[in-house]
Amino acid sequence: MFGIKKFLIVAAMFALFAATANVSAAASDVTLEPSSQIVTPGDTFTVNIFVSPDVDIAGMQFDLVFDSSQFQVSEASEGSLFKQSGMDTFFVAGSVNSGLLNDAYGCILGASDVATPANFASVTVTATEQSNGRSELVLKDVIISDPSGNAVDIELTNAVISVVIVDINQDGVVDFEDYGLVEQHFDETTSYPYPSWDVNQDDIVNVLDLMLVLSHMD
Ligand SMILES: [Ca+2]
Ligand SMILES: [Ca+2]
Ligand SMILES: [Ca+2]
User: Fold this and answer.
1) Number of domains in the chain
2) What SUPFAM superfamilies has UniProt attached to this entry (predicted)?
């Protein structure tokens, strides 16, 4: 008796799990990659708008919201998502103004579509000299179209950028004095407001903080 009951419960849970898995799979994923990243003030890096289509698609638009006191963002440049169709494509880089990359869009010219994951676009981001701490790059007004002009279901993943200060003693150079300061506090736990030797502000001073200083030495 107990055995059958247990079997039924397990079967019911499995059915529920399968149903949930189906629901979350039925969307095209749009992901800012890398979705988390540690940089220092003045660093320039690339963020890709990566698309994993769940169905055949042929057109897309997006906005990107960012903190303009932390970052400068370039216009978008086209990735391979729609070019992989082998057809010509149309691409508009959008315009950048006060914390918004607005209305970047593109599509396949002609009757074709794609379903293979690829970058739709890339943007170049520079952390300003005043930047510090964590902030998000956020996708907005994202629409993906199937070949007939119908919007498809999408799921968005934004990016978190942490700007860290590796000149621990703030004397204008990153050298072994800064490394030494981190070393002196090795294995200490920290909390907000973080001391400069917990470089990545994760509540503990360890090898990750040492590496951030080492990898940015002048
Ligand atoms: Ca817009
Ligand atoms: Ca220093
Ligand atoms: Ca740390």
Assistant:
1) 2
2) Carbohydrate-binding domain, Type I dockerin domain
